[in-house]
Amino acid sequence: MSLSHASKDRIAVLAICLAALMFGLEISSVPAVLPTIQKELHAGFSSVQWIMNAYTIACTTVLMAAGTLADRYGRKRLLLGSVCAFGATSLVCGWAGDAWLLIASRFLQGMSGGAMVICQIAALSQRFHQGPRRSRAFAAWGIIFGVGLGFGPLVGSAIVLWSQWHWVFLIQGPLALLTMALIAISVDESRDPEAKQLDLAGMVSLSLAVFGLTFFITQGPVLGFASAIAVGSLLLSLASFAAFVRVERRHAHPMFDFSVLRIRAFAGALYGSMGMNFSFWPLMIYLPIYFQAVLGYGVAASGLALLAYTLPPLIVPPLAERMVLRYHARRVIPLGLLTIGLGFFVMRLHNVLAPVAPSWLVGCVLAGIGLGLTNTPVSNTTTGAVSPTRAGMASGIDMSARLISLAINIALMGFLLLQGVFAYLQRVSEGAVDTSQLQHMAARIAAGDASQTSMARMALAQGFDWVMLYGGACAWILATASFLTFGARMVATTSAGRCATECA
Do residue 350 and residue 439 come from a single domain? Predict the structure, then answer.
């Protein structure tokens, strides 16, 4: 029995939203169980960072390549393949018995996840071309993505309490099977007839650039920033990025088409993509440590506390879409980033708001509202700023900006956290303890081992002060850049829902 067009629309949205749910759960449930993974696998602070960074770097490796492949060989075909691979690699993660095997399997999971998220955005953009239908579809996608993000911490905490951390990954297997079945019956195949061959040189050079910089930031404190290996990784990163720019400018059909940056709507939204990942998302990796080691919450209480950070993005996207229709993305996206930054600064107030509510609670809610105002409008604007046939490339650039900035800022926030703790210990020790011993102590405390002394908790609190100041400042700087880049006027054009800007 064939499905009606309306029925296929509803099932297609459901299928793509389920894929978004899988991706969202993987982002927010894993940080909630990292302290448990660290203890059971005897992993250090650097290993914890790499459990997350292996995923984000791998996503970045395939993002724009996935967009090109989807445009060329079919978005439905690649979406089905990526969901299948995501489910399979999640099972491998769940069966990992040591930290390095988990890191390696997370890299494979990240590659399939990156392809999956690109294809879901491109397929949604291709199926829903016009204003209201497109806005409703993306609003639904944003809500379900928010469900995965919002309830992920609670799911992760509940799994640790009632079972084993392995099920945070194993649960993705049955979800993948259901999602594939719905995609098969509802999503129509689409491709770009003008899509060309894969830009392998661009993909490799960009991946090496991100990996080299992330390695320099995470391993620099251990190896020494002036060591040959650290300096070599930084030089590799710079040379690879220069090669990437050169390759993309010379390539006849680049995966990163720099010409789209001249479209103000696209470039302004791209600052929104980066702004979320200079602030909101990397902090989520470290918040469980803050709740458990600084505030003294247990696993269950920590998971509930994280809901204050992740539930507002579940509620706000429909409002954000209505605001975009009325006030345009050029106002809503910068407003969202400003709200995220405000939330970070409020979290730094400590006990100032105690008579009303804990400052961390108010700050988490504000940051979550800001993300809800930013996330879906950014995705809709970047894909809507180009023709539907280039949706894969556009979503690839968008998600690459998100995940490159996320990978770098997971490392940067970890570095700031570690240095904040070290600075506090150095100040209170007054030179009585050897520097190498202080560094080792700071690494243990930054990883969450602050339960034994009040000094350790205060040191960790100072580290988080540094992190929150950094995230808030970055959000406000990128909000300003986004607003200025959008320019004074932006109007909707064409029946396909593209946005154009009138350049000054």
Answer: yes
pLDDT of residue 503: 32
Pairing state of beta strands 498-501 and 490-493? antiparallel
Residues 71 and 164 in one domain: yes
Distance CA 262, CA 248 (A): 16
Question: Which residues of the chain, if any, have pLDDT below 50?
Answer: 351, 355, 490-504
- List the structure tokens of 237: 């990163």
Claim to verify: residue 247 and residue 269 sit in the same structural domain: no
Count up the domains in the chain and report the number.
2
SS3 state at 96: coil
Short-list 338, 333, 330, CA closest to 486: 330
pTM, to two decimals: 0.76
**Quick one: pLDDT at residue 478?**
96
Rounded CA gap, 382 and 372, in Å?
A: 16
Residue (of 122, 108, 173, 146) closest to 25 by Cα position: 146
Q: What CA–CA distance (Å, rounded) separates 293 from 118?
A: 36
Distance from C-alpha of 300 to C-alpha of 304, rounded to nearest angstrom: 6
- Angle, CA of 40, 42 and 47, to the nearest 5°: 115
Helix (H) or strand (E) holding 501, with range, is strand 498-501
3-state secondary structure of 490: strand
* Structure confidence at residue 72 (pLDDT): 78
Q: How many other C-beta atoms are found inside a 10 Å radius of the C-beta of residue 500?
A: 17
In this prediction, residue 317 carries a pLDDT of 82
Inside any domain, residue 27: yes
Q: Which domain holds residue 424?
A: 5-187+255-501
d(CA 493, CA 24): 32
Alpha-carbon gap, residue 251 to 46, rounded angstroms: 37
| Domain shared by 309 and 178, yes or no | yes
Task: Report the alpha-carbon distance of residue 138 to residue 128 in Å, rounded.
Answer: 9
Cα–Cα dist 64/198, whole Å? 9
Per-residue burial over 259-284, b if 16 or more Cβ lie within 10 Å, else e, is ebeebbbbbbbbbbbbbbbbbbbbbb
Answer whether residue 194 is part of any domain.
Answer: no
- Residue 145 and residue 39 in one domain: yes
Q: Which two tokens stand for residue 17?
A: 């939203």
In a domain, residue 192? The reply is no
CB atoms within 10 A of CB 351: 8
**Which long-range contacts link 343-347 to residues 24+ away (Cβ below 8 Å)?**
343/367, 343/368, 343/369, 343/370, 343/472, 344/279, 344/283, 344/468, 344/469, 344/471, 344/472, 344/475, 345/468, 345/469, 345/472, 347/468
- Please, which residues bridge with residue 492 across strands? 499
